Amino acid sequence: MSIGSQPLVLLVSVGMIVGVLSCFWGHRIFKLLFGLMGFALGGLLTGLVALYVTGETTTALMVGAVGGFIGAGILLSLYTVGVFVLGAFTGIAIGLLVSAGYGQFDIAAWTLLAVAGGVVAILMQKFTVVVATALLGAWNIVVGGVYVVTRDMTVYQIAQDPASTQNMGIGIFYGTIACWAGLTIIGILVQYNALSRLKKAS
Question: What is the dihedral of CA 134, 179, 170, 147, to 10 degrees?
Answer without folding.
Answer: 70
